[in-house]
Amino acid sequence: MSNFWQRTLFGIVFISILIGAILYDAITFRVLFLLIAVSALDEFYKIVKTETAEPNLVAGRIVGIATYILLSAVAFGTLPYKYIAIIAALFLTIPLAELYRNKQQPIINIALTCFGIFYTIIPFALLNFISTTELHYNPEIILGYFILQWSSDTFAYLVGMTMGKRRLFERISPKKSWEGFIGGGLLTLVAGYITSIYFHSLSGSEWMIIAFIIVITGTLGDLVESLLKRTYQLKDSGNIIPGHGGILDRFDSLLFAIPFIWLYLNFMH
What we know:
Elements (H helix, E strand, L loop, with lengths): L2 H22 L1 H23 L8 H19 L10 H13 L7 H25 L1 E2 L2 E2 L1 H25 L3 E3 L3 E5 H21 L5 H28 L15 H22 L1
Antiparallel strand pairs: 1-2, 3-4
């Protein structure tokens, strides 16, 4: 099987599983994104692990999973908001665990372990809040988000390939162009308006604002992940999805976009 067809086949399967889990019910949605979040965390730890820097995989996983479950329970009303304070206590277990590891760079290990959770687990956990309307699961906003995110990535790529001349951030990502960023952004705003015609959980202006947030923060998230890979001289973050790289490669835009979308929706509603 050629790389093109392999990439296409696994892309269709992956998107089908993603959309199916979102639409089926709240449980499949929460479980799928917990698995994705933990996979992203594992990838991050694998990338940053060196001879002298060793994030605590076990403690990071335990705290990350507990954080996701806790935030998910709060989002769906199973627990009151005050229980979010438990997350602070969970994070304090990471430096305590480091006391017993006897590694060369304990402070760096603690920093990398904690940052991995902030970078991967927290954004995926916030999807639970975005998917909840008055404590009821509403897949429309999540599905609309992914449609706009995929639109942004696709339009930026196509416009950049056909018209791109001025590099957006050549030191980090030589292929990204200002033309792709601006042209893709304008077309994503159009996609936001079209999304509002079919998905009525938000108004047309709100969908377009979300599209704008996705274009800006999603691009920044892509650049940050490129910086991470360039620092460690990697082409892909992993190989969990044949032909598509790793989880971080597929969701790098989400990691930056979701917190800002949650903030916008939280203040607007």
